Amino acid sequence: MPNPIEDRRPPITPQLAVRVAVLGGVAFVLFAIIFFRLWFLQVLTGDEYVSQARENRVRKVKIEAPRGNIVDRNGRTLVKTRAAPVVQILPNSVPDEETEAADEYRTALASAEGARLKAAEDLKALERRLSGKRRKPTKAQKAERRRLRKASSRAERVAIPPIPADAPELRALYRRLGKVIDLPPRTIHKRVVAGLADQPGANVTIKTDVPPEAFNFLLEHRDEFPGVVVEKKYLRYYPHDELGAQLFGTLREISPEELKEKRYRGLEQGTRIGKDGIEETYDKYLRGTDGFTRVIVNSMGSRDDTRTATRVPPIQGRQLQLTLDLGLQREANDAMAQAIDAANGNFNPAKAGAFVAMDPRNGEVLALGSYPSFDANLFAKPIDQKTYERLNSEDEGAPLFNRAISAGYPTGSTFKPITALAAMEDGILTPTTVLNDPGVFRYGGREFKNAGDAVFGSLALPRALQVSSDVFFYQLGASLNERGPVIQDWARKLSFGKPTGIDLPGEYGGLVPDRKWRDKGFAEYQKCAKKAKVPVGTQAALFACGGIERPWAGGDNVNLAVGQGDLQATPLQLATAYAALANGGRVVTPHLGQEVQDGAGRQLEEIRKPLARKVDIDTPDLDAIRSGLLAAATQAGGTSVDVFEGFPYPVHGKTGTAERQPNADQSWYACWVDDPTRPIVVVVTVEEGGFGAEAAAPAARLILEKWFGVRGGEFVQGASRTQ
Amino acid sequence: MSSATTPIQPASEPPPALVPREWRLRLDPLLLLAVLGLVACSIVTLKGATRLDVEGQPDFYVYRQALYAGVGLVLMYVVSRIDYTRLQDLRFVVYGVLIASLLLTLGLATATRGAKAWIELPFFTLQPSEFGKVLLVVSLAGFLVSRMRLMGRQTTARILLLGLIPTMLVMAENDLGSALVYGVGILALLFIAGAPWRHFAALGALFAVAIAIVLVGAPAVGVQVLQDYQKDRLTSFLEPSADPADAGYQQQQSKIAIGSGEKTGRGVENATQTQLDYLPEHHTDFIFAVVGETYGFVGCALVLSLYALLIWRALHILTIAKNLYGALLAGGITVMLLFQLFVNVGMNVGIMPITGVTAPLLSAGGSSMLATFLAVGLLQSINAQARETAAGKGRATIFE
Fold it and tell me: Is the distance from CB of B258 to CB of B348 less than 8 angstroms?
């Protein structure tokens, strides 16, 4: 084989040359592609990637700002902030089995709620069927109704599945953690599942306010508790427990809807805002500015503390001063307790009431509250369902319910000054007009009597207020009914029938009944009854269509004249009306917010108060009412004179006893004291507390004694049995 | 068949005999420069990128890489002194070693990232598929040369068959990247050997059908040719941001790293993508992105220039090879290197799918480094033989 091909020094063939050239060309193109790509990435769009890299590594970790304190008018702390250690579990650290358990639990909860709603619907349908038929329901139907009632009242309880058996590490973790924070593993598991079901993706708080030893132990042994985070969280602290508990409100995380609202602009998800009460109204002052640290995190999400990071410290919220007087609030709360004791001693089933004390000149609320109250600290931590239900239950007196601003009642005789004012301003009555009170007033085929069948004879307005003659005011009510909604108009002018505008959410506007309201309601009732095919005036109609079963009658106005019937007024509305009587006709806007302060109590900003609305009242008319109310509390024969015996300040006061069948009568007292420096209006009411002089008036005296520093403190029951 | 006036002239100038022959390294200085430059870039980059990777040993990878490079240089020099032509006679042995090592790997390997391509040795994790790249070229080029006269469909088919066996074995190791390199190497050999264009056209058509079967047909009847993670990688490249938590995530992070380097880089301290582990496999598959982040466009341009120099010298050596076997060897090696670096850099800059191909000489890893030095040694040997031949019209021997 001469000149074997493999041994030859090959002159490069044209074919090989072409192919090498092709290879070279391909290499050139590939390099060019990469160069252009690099140019694009690094030079043309490099900035973009720089910021992406920054976003990658920098996590903004929020540092929650403590909220501002709330202090009373004398600077005593009502609400403050304290740091409490909490233990949480990261949602992405729990094994899939646990997450699945949470999903199952959520689905089960939803279906249980669905079943409840279904039962409620079935119940409605069944009752409609039963009421449509004239026949009595059969035994089976009754049983069915009983069953549905039960099913619709509460969703069936859903058991939380046990700790997944195939997650031994999780079980071990719960056991170890439970030992440290003193919770059984099962409870931890339940809280994790419930938390994940409620808010998937959010940290689950296992325990709030763990003892410092446990907190430090967990901090030091972080590695042994994977997925467990401990941190300090700010909690509200209420040093005076139940005092003013209904005024402050609570805190909770901002909802997605609220995030869109203008007043919460700029807040981030997870920010805690005030909900209800002062916390909500003055949230913008109390809420601080959250700070943050930019921490550097690696791809596994763990922090790299060796690298420098910026830190913007949080700014605590402003201190808020209220017009409230802590001492007076305490006294009022105690007085309510005594009033309820006294009422119970009189065999009245009283257990709840409300009080308002206010400066009549400007509407500064000095004390305001509802009894019974609750320990506000219960809401500083996540509250359990049982406690929450207890705080809302009627049997316990619904402590969460702020009766002073949210409950509407007939006010009984405390309404009489308003009737008197309306009659005089309308011209059918003068301060000296004498009417006869024979003890009974016949109107529209009905007999309206004085309480206790008293007979007062001939009397003019001041005397009628002093002794609380019902017949006198029945006559005014009857006469004024011919002249249109005169009482109603004056009641509305003096703040009844709509919210007073106090700086607390959840105020009830009440109701001043008039012809228009009742006639309209009755027309709707008739229409509804016709549609539902139930006869008008039956129980079934009442159930289906509400309570306005008849049109307006003169008797309604007669009832209104003495504060009975359909009238719905809040204690605060009554206090505002009395403040107008006391200050000569200015309707003030009650308020609690006084000023915004720095941490040392120096004023930063005064809270703007709405101007008072002036109501034109002839001075002689007002004087007549004032003298009547003064006589009622200070002169022999007055309804509360025995209660205020020996009280050194001139009290203008009116008792009230509102009928609220089938319940026992509600005890009312509304009064004011003119004083050049410390004038005050006080309204007290005790639900099912009996006569005004028995329960409410003595409580009002205790409040006044406290305010004027008068020694006493005795709960003096009055003997008056007037309405 | 041969002509005196070819467009590409072999370098026929003999080296000036000023220095005694024995003292000269007889290495292509530019090729050596490219290789040393790349190794230097690799070590510098690894020093910054991996200082936090092994606790207490900030220079763990640096030492290892330097050690491999040292061993590799010696290996390269030794190989450069061998007349590569002898390997042609050993083609059956070489092929046998190749197949045996791949089979052994399949038997012994431990799985890493889904692939089963590594054999654990006491001080070294051997990746036979890396050395296989060189062995494949050496043996297949030998087979090709022996059938050169019969260059036709038969030869193409035989070479393809011979090449496909190790390729399938590597596929079986789930080392998709190496399998692709093998495939491209085989094609390169056929290309240099002068297989007709229509063969490539036919192969292209066949390949398209195969892809369709693998990706669409086989899964439809329930046969999975590609592992899920491989398919993920391949498709995530088409939709880079579809799933930032998974395959697309790596590519996204790589692009962020490179882009954020901008013109001059962020420096070692500030290269957060690398330092905080956002960039996966930053010492191996994604080391080019580390260069991009740390040293910017300038750094990338330097590395690419060194690669370009390497490829240029390799192509040059291909043209001066003293025989066809040398040309085939050089061609196969060149194309494999070019393909590896393009696929690797391409996946770093987000224009190629993630296939687990390392950057030659740049990525940390002993097998890859030694195999590349072996290949470069062969190139040097081809170069030396060519110059010997041109100078002395004789054959260079191992130890003169």
Answer: yes
Q: Largest Cα–Cα distance of chain B, in whole Å?
A: 71
Among the partner-chain residues A8, A23, A296, the one whose CB lies closest to the CB of B276 is: A296
Nearest CA in chain A to B352: A34
CB contact under 8 A, B292 and A49: no
Do the chains contact at B261 and A48, CB–CB below 8 Å?
Answer: no
Residue B9's closest chain A neighbor by CA? A12
Neighbours of A661 (CB within 10 A): 6
Residues linked to residue A83 through DSSP beta bridges, in sequence order: A234
pLDDT in tens, B28-52: 899 999 999 999 999 999 998 888 7
Of B253, B277, B334, the CB nearest to A298: B277
Q: Is A604 on the interface with B (CB under 8 A)?
A: no
What residues have CB less than 8 Å from B35, skipping those under 6 apart? B76, B310, B361, B373, B376
* Chain B residue closest in CA terms to A47: B260
Tell how far CA A210 is from the center of its chain. 28
- Chain A residue with the nearest C-alpha to that of B142: A6
**E strand or H helix at A458, and its extent?**
strand A457-459
Q: What ipTM score was computed for the predicted complex, to two decimals? A: 0.87
Q: How far apart are CA B115 and CA B106, in angstroms?
A: 10
Q: Looking at the complex, does the CB of residue A44 fall below 8 Å from at least one CB of chain B?
A: no
Tell me: the pLDDT tens digits for B281-335? 888 889 999 999 999 999 999 999 999 999 999 999 999 888 889 999 999 999 9
Q: Which of A16, A37, A46 sits opposite B349 (nearest CB)?
A: A37
CA dihedral A564, A567, A571, A577 (to 10 degrees): -100
Tokens matching residue B189: 């050999």
The whole-angstrom distance between B256's CA and the closest CA on chain A is: 5
Global pTM? 0.64
Backbone angles phi, psi at A646, to 5 degrees: 85, 0
Judging contacts by C-beta atoms under 8 Å, the chain A residues touching residue B304 are 31, 34-35, 38
**B360: closest CA of chain A, how far (Å):** 15
Query: Is B322–A9 a contact, with Cβ atoms under 8 angstroms apart?
Result: yes
Contact B276 A46 (CB under 8 A): no
In DSSP notation, A510-576 reads: -B---HHHHHHHHHHHHHHHHHHT--TTSHHHHHHH-S--S---HHHHHHHHTT-TT-BB-HHHHHH
Tell me, what DSSP letter sits at residue A239? T
Helix (H, G, I), strand (E, B) or coil at A81: strand
CA-based torsion, B212, B218, B220, B226: positive or negative: negative
In terms of phi and psi (left: phi > 0; alpha: psi -120 to 50; beta: otherwise), the region of A430 is beta
d(CA A242, CA A371): 10
- For residues A259 and A265, give the distance between their C-alpha atoms in angstroms, rounded to a whole number: 7
Asked whether the beta carbons of residue A34 and residue B10 sit closer than 8 angstroms, the reply is no
Residues of chain A numbered 51-110 and touching chain B (CB < 8 Å): 52-54, 56-57
Are A34 and B88 in contact (CB < 8 Å)?
no
The pLDDT averaged over each successive group of 10 residues in chain B (400 residues) is: 48 54 68 94 90 80 92 92 89 92 82 67 80 93 82 83 91 86 92 87 88 75 68 60 59 88 85 80 88 93 95 92 90 94 92 86 90 94 84 45
Residues 6 or more apart whose Cβ sits within 8 Å of residue A114? none
- Measured distance CA(A636)–CA(A600) in Å, rounded: 51
B383 min Cα distance to partner chain A (Å): 13
Q: Do B311 and A26 touch (CB under 8 A)?
A: no
CA nearest neighbour of B316 among B230, B218, B387, B254: B387
Backbone angle region of B239, left / alpha / beta, with phi > 0 → left and psi within -120 to 50 → alpha:
beta
